[in-house]
Amino acid sequence: MILRANEPEVPDVTDTFTQQRLIHLGSLAAELSERGLSSRVLGRNAPVLWVWDPGSGSQTIVFATPTSDGWFFLWSPDGQECAKDSRRTAEALKGLLGGSP
User: Fold this and answer.
1) Which of 37, 44, 96, 101 is least enclosed by beta carbons within 10 angstroms?
2) Residues 81, 63: Cα–Cα separation, whole Å
3) In the prediction, which pLDDT does 6 show?
């Protein structure tokens, strides 16, 4: 039997993932604010966090994504950190965007 996305037997995991993403991104946003960085959530169905340093003008986008090892934050260039450690992620982003970690 093939199920289609609009059939009631198919659970809507999009809402669950979106809620979990928002929780992780919100936790990171709070840590970033404590370090003088600004951020804003962008997107509805697949939210991301736009992060910038008001002093340097540098910016990046942070994704929160589920993996087999739990949730991770990903950002450019080559940034990756476990979402459970939003403090460490905020420190890394502070260093990347122009401040000292």
Assistant:
1) 44
2) 11
3) 54
